[in-house]
Amino acid sequence: MRSVRDDRLVRPTQEDEVAAAGSELIGGPAGRRALPGGWRTPVRVVVLVMIGMFALGMVQKVPCYDHGWFFGATTQYTHACYSDIPHLFTGRGFDRGLIPYLDEIPRSMGDMDYLEYPVLTGAFMEVAALLTPGGGAQHRAQLYWFVNSGMLLVCAVVIAFCVARTHRRRPWDGLLVALAPAFALTATINWDLFAVALTSVALLAWSRGRTGTAGVFIGLAAAAKLYPVLLLWPLFLVCWRAGRWREFRATLSSAVVTWLVVNVPLMLVVDGPMAPIRAGWAKFYTFSHDRPVDYGSLWLLVSQRTGDPMDDVNVYASVLMVVGSLAIGALCLYAPRRPRLVQLAFLEIALFVVANKVYSPQYVLWLIPLAVLARPRWRDFLVWQTCEVLYFLGIWFHLAYTGDGDKHQGLPQDGYQLALVLHLLGTLYLCALVVRDVLRPDRDVIRRDGSDDPSGGPLDRAPDIYVLGRTRPREWRDERPETLRVQWGSGSGGTV
């Protein structure tokens, strides 16, 4: 893989006033006589910062280590250190050696008969359980959290590396991911980082033109969490506009085959001693369909304000998702220049979390890498992160209020609803800015130096074939006035 010379790298401190101001804490922006090279390469610095911030996120959970996760304590809410990991270690039978999807969970342990996570996430949880040493129940639950945290740290490093490498000339944008406060606070709440890491590898592979590899990792990510499958819609749109159907077919086919290879062994076993496996495999999908509105969602706000239980929320959410996805499609085909893939990917995943029945605090992890790649502007990113941190505190304080008996120490419903509104508005604010960049390519910070789509892989600098409002193909043009680049065919190009 050919490296990019240091003098061609884009430095955030040279183009972003907030980044320049923040750099004063460590000595200010690098000068033009600063020596490049050495061990402090951008990717290494980004990875080290990620490790440091992840460790701080673990330290933030200290109040829960001893008693906060156990005995129904409200400490996990008042200190905002809640995590699903130790609870599900006992609640899903990992402490008893139950095998996910095969062994039924006794009713005495909760209301789930099988593990309610996709196959690869269940495998991740099982591997962590096998690595957890023996001991007392509480001690093992603590160790299980530490083992998972170590495995999730590897995922966080993969995410930081992939984001730093996806835009060849902008590795320092990875610092936004590494320094994101919501990333550190939510990284060990659940197992979402595993799917986010696989998705990040898929985007990196696509940016290098490896369409089959990208499809494989999309398939793996979709086998760990549902949301990565939605990336196929933005891929379809940009390939449609560029007329590059071969690339889309390669990615789609490899994604579908990979997902089937992972899931079919559990899907099709219907007879014999392994019969329960099919019901166990389907639990994630039936649970997702049957669950009511939950914390963080737009629909919960509507339900609480109107008193409507929202029994038809699946219909409402599906309609909003379909209409929003069609709007994203129209945006792609109408924009004066083909949008960058990560711009549409961010909009699609943001639409999904806003339209969903639940918007858990850790879902922000899905959006952070995409937001950085779509719009690496420090001010707007930090505004959004502030909203997410406020919601992170709001949800736990509200649960402390509702779960503390008659004491009601925490945030009442009106306060929680305010935090929820900020949570949704922060996401929509960033979406609006990305839409503006799509409609006004001259405002897109990535394209400011004349680039087309650095993360677009085989579509980078491809001409527009299908454009609403135009009847003939549009050549790819360098935004710099002194250069006109025209691409002929699929591989050759010239400069006029």
TrEMBL record:
The keyword Transmembrane helix is assigned to this record: yes
Transmembrane parts of this sequence: 41-59, 143-163, 175-204, 216-238, 250-270, 315-335, 381-399, 419-439
Membrane topology, as annotated: Multi-pass membrane protein
GO MF term (any one): hexosyltransferase activity
Localization of this protein: Cell membrane
Keyword vocabulary terms for this entry: Cell membrane, Membrane, Transferase, Transmembrane, Transmembrane helix
InterPro entries given in the database record: GT87 (IPR018584), UCP010361 (IPR016570)
GO cellular component, one term: plasma membrane
Keyword Zinc found: no
Subcellular location, principal: membrane
Signal peptide per UniProt: none
Family the UniProt entry places it in: Belongs to the glycosyltransferase 87 family.
Name this polypeptide is given: DUF2029 domain-containing protein
